[in-house]
Protein backbone atom coordinates (compact mmCIF):
# COMPACT_ATOMS: atom_id res chain seq x y z
CA UNK A 1 0.00 0.00 0.00
CA UNK A 2 1.23 3.51 -0.71
CA UNK A 3 0.54 6.57 1.38
CA UNK A 4 0.00 9.83 -0.38
CA UNK A 5 2.49 12.60 0.32
CA UNK A 6 0.80 15.81 1.47
CA UNK A 7 0.88 18.83 -0.81
CA UNK A 8 3.73 21.29 -0.11
CA UNK A 9 2.60 23.93 2.45
CA UNK A 10 1.78 26.51 -0.20
CA UNK A 11 -0.62 29.40 -0.39
CA UNK A 12 -2.29 27.43 -3.16
CA UNK A 13 -2.94 24.37 -0.95
CA UNK A 14 -4.79 26.70 1.45
CA UNK A 15 -6.84 28.54 -1.19
CA UNK A 16 -7.46 26.22 -4.18
CA UNK A 17 -10.83 24.97 -5.38
CA UNK A 18 -11.70 21.51 -4.04
CA UNK A 19 -10.14 18.57 -5.85
CA UNK A 20 -12.17 16.24 -8.03
CA UNK A 21 -12.20 12.61 -6.79
CA UNK A 22 -9.29 10.63 -8.25
CA UNK A 23 -9.39 7.29 -6.40
CA UNK A 24 -6.44 4.91 -6.50
CA UNK A 25 -6.58 2.30 -9.25
CA UNK A 26 -7.58 -1.04 -7.73
CA UNK A 27 -8.67 -3.14 -10.73
CA UNK A 28 -6.70 -4.18 -13.79
CA UNK A 29 -7.35 -2.06 -16.88
CA UNK A 30 -7.02 -2.29 -20.65
CA UNK A 31 -6.77 1.12 -22.28
CA UNK A 32 -5.67 2.82 -25.48
CA UNK A 33 -3.31 5.32 -23.81
CA UNK A 34 -1.82 5.20 -20.32
CA UNK A 35 -0.28 8.44 -19.05
CA UNK A 36 2.18 8.49 -16.16
CA UNK A 37 2.15 11.83 -14.29
CA UNK A 38 -0.83 14.00 -13.36
CA UNK A 39 0.59 17.50 -13.90
CA UNK A 40 -0.36 19.88 -16.70
CA UNK A 41 1.42 17.72 -19.33
CA UNK A 42 -0.35 14.50 -18.42
CA UNK A 43 -3.75 16.05 -17.68
CA UNK A 44 -3.85 18.23 -20.80
CA UNK A 45 -2.88 15.26 -22.98
CA UNK A 46 -5.61 13.16 -21.35
CA UNK A 47 -8.14 15.94 -21.96
CA UNK A 48 -7.19 16.31 -25.62
CA UNK A 49 -7.27 12.54 -26.16
CA UNK A 50 -10.66 12.25 -24.46
CA UNK A 51 -12.05 15.14 -26.53
CA UNK A 52 -11.32 13.00 -29.58
CA UNK A 53 -12.93 9.91 -28.11
CA UNK A 54 -9.67 8.16 -27.20
CA UNK A 55 -9.63 6.25 -23.93
CA UNK A 56 -6.95 7.79 -21.68
CA UNK A 57 -5.98 6.79 -18.17
CA UNK A 58 -3.73 8.94 -15.97
CA UNK A 59 -1.64 7.35 -13.22
CA UNK A 60 -0.51 9.92 -10.66
CA UNK A 61 1.71 8.88 -7.73
CA UNK A 62 0.21 11.52 -5.36
CA UNK A 63 -2.67 13.70 -6.54
CA UNK A 64 -3.22 15.83 -9.67
CA UNK A 65 -1.12 18.99 -9.38
CA UNK A 66 1.05 17.63 -6.55
CA UNK A 67 4.25 18.30 -8.56
CA UNK A 68 5.38 21.57 -10.14
CA UNK A 69 1.94 22.09 -11.66
CA UNK A 70 0.22 22.84 -8.36
CA UNK A 71 3.09 24.83 -6.83
CA UNK A 72 4.55 27.14 -9.45
CA UNK A 73 4.66 30.92 -9.87
CA UNK A 74 1.45 30.89 -11.88
CA UNK A 75 2.90 32.98 -14.72
CA UNK A 76 1.65 32.09 -18.18
CA UNK A 77 4.63 33.12 -20.29
CA UNK A 78 4.74 32.97 -24.09
CA UNK A 79 7.75 31.56 -25.94
CA UNK A 80 10.74 29.40 -25.12
CA UNK A 81 13.92 30.23 -23.25
CA UNK A 82 15.75 30.88 -26.53
CA UNK A 83 15.15 33.80 -28.90
CA UNK A 84 13.19 33.25 -32.13
CA UNK A 85 16.28 33.71 -34.36
CA UNK A 86 18.16 31.18 -32.24
CA UNK A 87 15.32 28.66 -32.57
CA UNK A 88 15.37 29.02 -36.36
CA UNK A 89 19.16 28.71 -36.40
CA UNK A 90 18.99 25.56 -34.24
CA UNK A 91 16.13 23.81 -36.04
CA UNK A 92 16.01 25.32 -39.54
CA UNK A 93 13.45 27.68 -41.07
CA UNK A 94 10.58 25.19 -41.37
CA UNK A 95 10.51 23.43 -37.98
CA UNK A 96 11.96 26.55 -36.34
CA UNK A 97 9.07 28.67 -37.63
CA UNK A 98 6.51 26.11 -36.42
CA UNK A 99 8.17 25.94 -33.00
CA UNK A 100 8.09 29.74 -32.67
CA UNK A 101 4.45 29.95 -33.71
CA UNK A 102 3.53 27.16 -31.32
CA UNK A 103 5.56 28.40 -28.33
CA UNK A 104 4.41 32.00 -28.59
CA UNK A 105 0.82 30.80 -29.05
CA UNK A 106 0.79 28.72 -25.85
CA UNK A 107 -0.63 31.43 -23.57
CA UNK A 108 -3.58 32.23 -25.83
CA UNK A 109 -4.13 28.48 -26.18
CA UNK A 110 -4.15 28.04 -22.39
CA UNK A 111 -6.37 31.02 -21.60
CA UNK A 112 -8.80 29.89 -24.37
CA UNK A 113 -8.90 26.40 -22.87
CA UNK A 114 -9.62 27.85 -19.42
CA UNK A 115 -12.50 29.88 -20.87
CA UNK A 116 -13.83 26.95 -22.91
CA UNK A 117 -14.01 24.68 -19.83
CA UNK A 118 -14.81 27.56 -17.47
CA UNK A 119 -12.00 26.48 -15.14
CA UNK A 120 -12.19 28.65 -12.00
CA UNK A 121 -8.50 29.51 -11.52
CA UNK A 122 -8.25 33.31 -11.29
CA UNK A 123 -6.82 33.51 -14.82
CA UNK A 124 -5.91 36.93 -16.22
CA UNK A 125 -3.93 38.07 -19.27
CA UNK A 126 -2.28 41.30 -18.14
CA UNK A 127 1.04 40.65 -19.87
CA UNK A 128 4.51 39.31 -19.05
CA UNK A 129 7.48 41.59 -18.38
CA UNK A 130 10.96 40.24 -18.93
CA UNK A 131 13.04 42.86 -17.15
CA UNK A 132 16.73 43.71 -16.94
CA UNK A 133 18.42 45.60 -14.12
CA UNK A 134 21.79 45.99 -15.83
CA UNK A 135 22.56 47.94 -18.98
CA UNK A 136 24.45 44.85 -20.11
CA UNK A 137 21.34 42.67 -20.29
CA UNK A 138 19.02 45.30 -21.76
CA UNK A 139 20.73 44.88 -25.14
CA UNK A 140 19.78 41.19 -25.13
CA UNK A 141 16.19 41.98 -24.19
CA UNK A 142 15.93 44.66 -26.85
CA UNK A 143 17.20 42.14 -29.39
CA UNK A 144 14.58 39.59 -28.32
CA UNK A 145 11.86 42.26 -28.55
CA UNK A 146 12.97 43.27 -32.05
CA UNK A 147 12.90 39.65 -33.22
CA UNK A 148 9.36 39.26 -31.87
CA UNK A 149 8.16 42.58 -33.33
CA UNK A 150 9.64 41.62 -36.74
CA UNK A 151 7.45 38.53 -36.61
CA UNK A 152 4.34 40.59 -35.90
CA UNK A 153 3.99 39.70 -32.22
CA UNK A 154 2.24 41.97 -29.67
CA UNK A 155 5.48 42.91 -27.92
CA UNK A 156 6.91 46.26 -26.77
CA UNK A 157 10.27 47.39 -25.43
CA UNK A 158 9.92 49.54 -22.29
CA UNK A 159 12.45 52.00 -20.88
CA UNK A 160 13.35 52.84 -17.28
CA UNK A 161 10.67 55.53 -16.85
CA UNK A 162 7.91 53.28 -18.22
CA UNK A 163 9.09 50.47 -15.94
CA UNK A 164 9.08 52.70 -12.89
CA UNK A 165 5.39 53.32 -13.60
CA UNK A 166 4.63 49.63 -14.12
CA UNK A 167 6.64 48.23 -11.20
CA UNK A 168 6.93 51.02 -8.66
CA UNK A 169 10.72 50.63 -8.46
CA UNK A 170 13.79 52.16 -10.11
CA UNK A 171 15.48 48.81 -10.34
CA UNK A 172 14.80 48.07 -14.01
CA UNK A 173 16.62 49.60 -16.94
CA UNK A 174 14.68 47.93 -19.74
CA UNK A 175 12.07 45.22 -20.32
CA UNK A 176 10.05 43.45 -22.94
CA UNK A 177 6.29 43.44 -22.43
CA UNK A 178 4.39 40.64 -24.14
CA UNK A 179 0.68 41.32 -23.81
CA UNK A 180 -0.18 37.63 -24.31
CA UNK A 181 1.27 36.69 -20.89
CA UNK A 182 -0.73 36.45 -17.70
CA UNK A 183 -1.27 34.52 -14.50
CA UNK A 184 -3.48 32.01 -12.77
CA UNK A 185 -3.88 29.99 -9.56
CA UNK A 186 -1.73 26.95 -10.37
CA UNK A 187 -3.39 24.33 -8.13
CA UNK A 188 -6.93 25.42 -8.98
CA UNK A 189 -5.91 25.21 -12.63
CA UNK A 190 -4.44 21.70 -12.24
CA UNK A 191 -7.57 20.54 -10.42
CA UNK A 192 -9.75 22.18 -13.06
CA UNK A 193 -7.82 20.42 -15.83
CA UNK A 194 -8.31 17.10 -14.02
CA UNK A 195 -12.03 17.81 -13.73
CA UNK A 196 -12.25 18.77 -17.42
CA UNK A 197 -10.36 15.64 -18.49
CA UNK A 198 -12.63 13.42 -16.40
CA UNK A 199 -15.77 15.14 -17.70
CA UNK A 200 -14.51 14.56 -21.25
CA UNK A 201 -14.18 10.83 -20.49
CA UNK A 202 -10.61 10.33 -19.24
CA UNK A 203 -9.84 8.34 -16.09
CA UNK A 204 -7.51 9.89 -13.50
CA UNK A 205 -6.14 7.88 -10.58
CA UNK A 206 -4.27 9.46 -7.67
CA UNK A 207 -2.10 7.55 -5.19
CA UNK A 208 -1.18 5.26 -8.06
CA UNK A 209 2.51 5.29 -8.88
CA UNK A 210 3.62 3.44 -11.99
CA UNK A 211 6.18 0.99 -10.60
CA UNK A 212 7.40 -0.63 -13.79
CA UNK A 213 6.85 -0.44 -17.52
CA UNK A 214 7.55 -3.23 -19.98
CA UNK A 215 6.51 -4.58 -23.35
CA UNK A 216 4.09 -7.51 -23.36
CA UNK A 217 3.41 -8.69 -26.91
CA UNK A 218 2.30 -5.68 -28.92
CA UNK A 219 1.18 -3.72 -25.84
CA UNK A 220 2.70 -2.12 -22.73
CA UNK A 221 2.27 -3.43 -19.21
CA UNK A 222 2.40 -1.00 -16.30
CA UNK A 223 2.49 -2.29 -12.79
CA UNK A 224 0.96 -0.22 -9.99
CA UNK A 225 0.64 -1.16 -6.28
CA UNK A 226 -2.85 -2.72 -6.60
CA UNK A 227 -3.49 -3.28 -10.30
CA UNK A 228 -1.93 -3.77 -13.71
CA UNK A 229 -2.62 -1.55 -16.73
CA UNK A 230 -2.30 -2.82 -20.30
CA UNK A 231 -2.05 -0.03 -22.84
CA UNK A 232 -1.56 0.31 -26.60
CA UNK A 233 0.42 3.48 -26.08
CA UNK A 234 2.15 5.19 -23.17
CA UNK A 235 3.05 8.79 -22.36
CA UNK A 236 5.56 9.55 -19.61
CA UNK A 237 4.96 13.03 -18.17
CA UNK A 238 6.91 12.97 -14.93
CA UNK A 239 9.10 16.08 -15.44
CA UNK A 240 11.16 17.05 -12.32
CA UNK A 241 9.99 13.88 -10.55
CA UNK A 242 11.21 11.52 -13.25
CA UNK A 243 12.37 8.20 -11.79
CA UNK A 244 13.80 5.05 -13.35
CA UNK A 245 10.69 3.96 -15.25
CA UNK A 246 12.51 4.49 -18.55
CA UNK A 247 16.24 3.74 -18.74
CA UNK A 248 18.50 6.79 -18.48
CA UNK A 249 15.59 9.29 -18.65
CA UNK A 250 16.32 10.59 -15.15
CA UNK A 251 19.79 11.58 -16.32
CA UNK A 252 18.50 13.80 -19.17
CA UNK A 253 17.25 16.50 -16.80
CA UNK A 254 18.45 18.39 -13.75
CA UNK A 255 15.57 18.43 -11.23
CA UNK A 256 16.12 21.77 -9.48
CA UNK A 257 13.96 23.28 -6.78
CA UNK A 258 12.43 26.72 -7.21
CA UNK A 259 10.88 28.50 -4.20
CA UNK A 260 8.15 31.05 -3.58
CA UNK A 261 7.34 33.33 -0.63
CA UNK A 262 3.92 35.00 -0.35
CA UNK A 263 2.70 37.97 1.68
CA UNK A 264 -0.64 38.40 3.35
CA UNK A 265 -3.05 40.47 1.19
CA UNK A 266 -1.63 43.99 0.78
CA UNK A 267 -3.76 47.09 1.05
CA UNK A 268 -5.07 48.33 -2.32
CA UNK A 269 -2.80 51.36 -2.07
CA UNK A 270 0.36 49.31 -1.50
CA UNK A 271 -0.53 46.76 -4.20
CA UNK A 272 -1.18 49.60 -6.63
CA UNK A 273 2.12 51.25 -5.74
CA UNK A 274 3.90 48.05 -6.79
CA UNK A 275 2.08 46.90 -9.91
CA UNK A 276 -0.92 49.02 -10.83
CA UNK A 277 -1.77 47.01 -13.98
CA UNK A 278 -0.88 43.56 -12.59
CA UNK A 279 1.39 42.04 -15.23
CA UNK A 280 3.76 39.25 -14.16
CA UNK A 281 7.51 39.89 -14.16
CA UNK A 282 10.62 37.80 -14.39
CA UNK A 283 14.13 39.16 -14.22
CA UNK A 284 16.64 38.30 -16.89
CA UNK A 285 19.63 37.84 -14.56
CA UNK A 286 21.58 34.63 -14.20
CA UNK A 287 19.54 33.86 -11.09
CA UNK A 288 15.96 34.53 -12.08
CA UNK A 289 13.57 36.21 -9.67
CA UNK A 290 9.89 36.23 -10.69
CA UNK A 291 6.87 37.83 -9.10
CA UNK A 292 3.25 38.85 -9.40
CA UNK A 293 0.42 40.23 -7.31
CA UNK A 294 -2.53 37.85 -7.18
CA UNK A 295 -6.23 38.68 -7.18
CA UNK A 296 -6.26 39.00 -3.38
CA UNK A 297 -3.38 41.52 -3.50
CA UNK A 298 -0.78 39.07 -2.21
CA UNK A 299 2.74 39.51 -3.52
CA UNK A 300 4.24 36.18 -4.64
CA UNK A 301 8.04 36.35 -5.00
CA UNK A 302 9.78 33.38 -6.60
CA UNK A 303 13.38 32.40 -7.19
CA UNK A 304 16.16 29.98 -6.43
CA UNK A 305 16.11 28.52 -2.93
CA UNK A 306 17.58 25.56 -1.07
CA UNK A 307 17.87 22.28 -2.98
CA UNK A 308 15.61 20.55 -0.43
CA UNK A 309 11.95 20.85 0.56
CA UNK A 310 11.12 24.03 2.51
CA UNK A 311 8.22 24.88 4.81
CA UNK A 312 8.27 28.58 5.55
CA UNK A 313 9.02 31.97 3.93
CA UNK A 314 11.95 32.26 6.37
CA UNK A 315 13.62 29.40 4.45
CA UNK A 316 13.90 31.88 1.56
CA UNK A 317 14.42 35.06 3.57
CA UNK A 318 16.48 36.56 0.74
CA UNK A 319 13.29 36.80 -1.37
CA UNK A 320 11.60 38.80 1.41
CA UNK A 321 14.66 41.03 1.79
CA UNK A 322 14.84 41.57 -1.96
CA UNK A 323 11.14 42.53 -2.10
CA UNK A 324 11.65 45.06 0.72
CA UNK A 325 14.62 46.48 -1.14
CA UNK A 326 12.51 46.98 -4.28
CA UNK A 327 9.51 48.36 -2.38
CA UNK A 328 10.42 49.75 1.09
CA UNK A 329 6.68 50.23 1.75
CA UNK A 330 6.54 46.45 2.34
CA UNK A 331 8.51 46.66 5.62
CA UNK A 332 6.39 45.18 8.39
CA UNK A 333 4.07 43.29 6.01
CA UNK A 334 3.39 39.67 7.05
CA UNK A 335 4.82 36.86 4.93
CA UNK A 336 2.48 33.91 5.39
CA UNK A 337 3.74 31.09 3.15
CA UNK A 338 6.98 29.71 1.78
CA UNK A 339 7.15 26.55 -0.35
CA UNK A 340 8.90 24.98 -3.30
CA UNK A 341 8.80 22.22 -5.86
CA UNK A 342 10.99 20.65 -8.51
CA UNK A 343 11.18 21.57 -12.16
CA UNK A 344 13.18 19.95 -14.92
CA UNK A 345 16.05 21.77 -16.65
CA UNK A 346 17.52 20.29 -19.83
CA UNK A 347 21.10 20.77 -21.01
CA UNK A 348 20.07 22.72 -24.14
CA UNK A 349 17.21 24.58 -22.37
CA UNK A 350 14.69 23.29 -24.91
CA UNK A 351 11.72 21.15 -23.83
CA UNK A 352 12.31 17.53 -24.81
CA UNK A 353 9.97 15.13 -26.55
CA UNK A 354 11.27 11.58 -27.03
CA UNK A 355 9.86 8.50 -28.72
CA UNK A 356 12.33 5.87 -27.53
CA UNK A 357 10.25 2.87 -28.65
CA UNK A 358 7.18 2.27 -30.76
CA UNK A 359 4.09 3.64 -29.00
CA UNK A 360 6.01 5.34 -26.17
CA UNK A 361 6.13 9.11 -25.98
CA UNK A 362 7.94 11.16 -23.33
CA UNK A 363 7.60 14.90 -22.74
CA UNK A 364 9.57 16.78 -20.12
CA UNK A 365 11.84 19.74 -19.44
CA UNK A 366 9.79 22.92 -19.76
CA UNK A 367 12.74 24.72 -18.08
CA UNK A 368 10.57 26.75 -15.73
CA UNK A 369 7.98 27.86 -18.27
CA UNK A 370 5.60 24.94 -18.37
CA UNK A 371 2.29 26.46 -17.26
CA UNK A 372 1.23 27.42 -20.78
CA UNK A 373 3.79 25.32 -22.63
CA UNK A 374 2.90 21.99 -20.99
CA UNK A 375 -0.80 22.73 -21.45
CA UNK A 376 -0.38 23.37 -25.17
CA UNK A 377 2.04 20.43 -25.51
CA UNK A 378 -0.84 18.24 -24.36
CA UNK A 379 -2.70 18.89 -27.62
CA UNK A 380 0.44 18.15 -29.67
CA UNK A 381 1.17 14.94 -27.77
CA UNK A 382 -2.45 13.80 -28.17
CA UNK A 383 -2.14 14.33 -31.94
CA UNK A 384 0.99 12.23 -32.11
CA UNK A 385 -0.48 9.50 -29.87
CA UNK A 386 -3.57 9.28 -32.07
CA UNK A 387 -1.94 9.67 -35.47
CA UNK A 388 1.33 7.80 -34.89
CA UNK A 389 4.79 8.43 -36.28
CA UNK A 390 3.57 10.01 -39.52
CA UNK A 391 2.00 12.94 -37.66
CA UNK A 392 4.39 15.85 -37.29
CA UNK A 393 4.24 17.97 -34.16
CA UNK A 394 5.58 21.49 -33.63
CA UNK A 395 8.49 20.38 -31.46
CA UNK A 396 11.44 18.21 -32.43
CA UNK A 397 11.35 14.58 -31.34
CA UNK A 398 14.85 13.79 -30.16
CA UNK A 399 16.85 10.84 -28.82
CA UNK A 400 17.42 10.34 -25.10
CA UNK A 401 20.83 11.85 -24.29
CA UNK A 402 21.93 11.61 -20.65
CA UNK A 403 23.75 14.70 -19.37
CA UNK A 404 27.46 13.88 -18.95
CA UNK A 405 28.57 13.71 -15.28
CA UNK A 406 24.90 13.90 -14.22
CA UNK A 407 25.71 12.49 -10.77
CA UNK A 408 27.48 15.75 -9.97
CA UNK A 409 24.48 18.01 -10.67
CA UNK A 410 24.01 19.20 -7.06
CA UNK A 411 27.59 20.53 -7.12
CA UNK A 412 27.04 21.99 -10.60
CA UNK A 413 23.86 23.80 -9.52
CA UNK A 414 25.54 25.24 -6.41
CA UNK A 415 28.48 26.46 -8.51
CA UNK A 416 26.13 27.94 -11.12
CA UNK A 417 24.11 29.74 -8.42
CA UNK A 418 27.24 31.25 -6.85
CA UNK A 419 28.66 32.23 -10.25
CA UNK A 420 25.27 33.64 -11.26
CA UNK A 421 25.07 35.77 -8.10
CA UNK A 422 28.51 37.23 -8.76
CA UNK A 423 27.71 37.89 -12.44
CA UNK A 424 24.37 39.49 -11.50
CA UNK A 425 26.14 41.78 -9.04
CA UNK A 426 28.77 42.75 -11.60
CA UNK A 427 26.30 43.03 -14.47
CA UNK A 428 28.24 40.71 -16.78
C1 LIG B 1 8.38 26.78 -7.81
C2 LIG B 1 8.15 26.70 -9.30
C3 LIG B 1 7.76 27.85 -9.96
C4 LIG B 1 7.48 27.79 -11.34
N1 LIG B 1 6.97 28.90 -11.93
C5 LIG B 1 6.53 28.82 -13.20
C6 LIG B 1 5.84 29.91 -13.78
O1 LIG B 1 5.58 30.92 -13.13
N2 LIG B 1 5.47 29.79 -15.08
C7 LIG B 1 5.70 28.67 -15.82
O2 LIG B 1 5.34 28.62 -16.99
N3 LIG B 1 6.30 27.59 -15.27
C8 LIG B 1 6.71 27.63 -13.97
N4 LIG B 1 7.28 26.53 -13.40
C9 LIG B 1 7.40 25.30 -14.19
C10 LIG B 1 6.05 24.57 -14.32
O3 LIG B 1 5.43 24.46 -13.07
C11 LIG B 1 6.32 23.18 -14.91
O4 LIG B 1 7.00 23.33 -16.15
C12 LIG B 1 5.04 22.40 -15.18
O5 LIG B 1 4.19 22.40 -14.06
C13 LIG B 1 5.41 20.98 -15.55
O6 LIG B 1 4.25 20.18 -15.60
P1 LIG B 1 4.40 18.61 -15.74
O7 LIG B 1 3.04 18.05 -15.85
O8 LIG B 1 5.30 18.31 -16.89
O9 LIG B 1 5.15 18.15 -14.42
P2 LIG B 1 4.66 18.07 -12.89
O10 LIG B 1 3.57 19.02 -12.61
O11 LIG B 1 5.86 18.13 -12.02
O12 LIG B 1 4.00 16.64 -12.79
C14 LIG B 1 4.74 15.44 -12.78
C15 LIG B 1 3.92 14.45 -11.98
O13 LIG B 1 4.42 13.14 -12.22
C16 LIG B 1 4.15 12.39 -11.05
N5 LIG B 1 4.99 11.17 -11.10
C17 LIG B 1 6.35 11.09 -11.14
N6 LIG B 1 6.73 9.78 -11.24
C18 LIG B 1 5.60 9.04 -11.27
C19 LIG B 1 5.33 7.65 -11.38
N7 LIG B 1 6.32 6.75 -11.48
N8 LIG B 1 4.03 7.24 -11.38
C20 LIG B 1 3.01 8.13 -11.30
N9 LIG B 1 3.22 9.47 -11.20
C21 LIG B 1 4.49 9.92 -11.20
C22 LIG B 1 4.50 13.33 -9.91
O14 LIG B 1 3.86 12.96 -8.71
C23 LIG B 1 3.99 14.68 -10.47
O15 LIG B 1 2.69 15.02 -9.99
C24 LIG B 1 7.63 26.56 -12.05
C25 LIG B 1 8.04 25.42 -11.38
C26 LIG B 1 8.30 25.48 -10.02
C27 LIG B 1 8.72 24.22 -9.30
From TrEMBL:
One of its GO terms (molecular function) is oxidoreductase activity. Coiled coil: none annotated. Residues 33-383 form the FAD dependent oxidoreductase domain. The keyword Oxidoreductase applies. One of its GO terms (cellular component) is cytoplasm. Keywords: Oxidoreductase. It comes from the Bacteria. Gene3D superfamilies: D-Amino Acid Oxidase, subunit A, domain 2 (3.30.9.10), FAD/NAD(P)-binding domain (3.50.50.60). Transmembrane segments: none annotated. InterPro entries: FAD-dep_OxRdtase (IPR006076), FAD/NAD-bd_sf (IPR036188). PANTHER family: FAD DEPENDENT OXIDOREDUCTASE DOMAIN-CONTAINING PROTEIN (PTHR13847:SF281), SARCOSINE DEHYDROGENASE-RELATED (PTHR13847). The keyword Oxidoreductase applies. This is FAD-binding oxidoreductase.
Amino acid sequence: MTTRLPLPPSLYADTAVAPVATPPLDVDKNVSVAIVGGGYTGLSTALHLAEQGVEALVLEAQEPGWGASGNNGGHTNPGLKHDPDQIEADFGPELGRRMIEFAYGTTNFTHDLIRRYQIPCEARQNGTLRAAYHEASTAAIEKTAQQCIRRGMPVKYLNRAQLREMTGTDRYVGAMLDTRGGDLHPLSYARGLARAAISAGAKVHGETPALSLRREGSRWRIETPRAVVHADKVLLATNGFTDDLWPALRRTIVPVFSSIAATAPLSDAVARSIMPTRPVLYESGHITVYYRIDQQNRLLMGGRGPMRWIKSPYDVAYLMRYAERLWPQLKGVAWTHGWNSRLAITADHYPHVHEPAESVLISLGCNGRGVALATAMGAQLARRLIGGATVEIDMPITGIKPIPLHAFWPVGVTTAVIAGRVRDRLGI
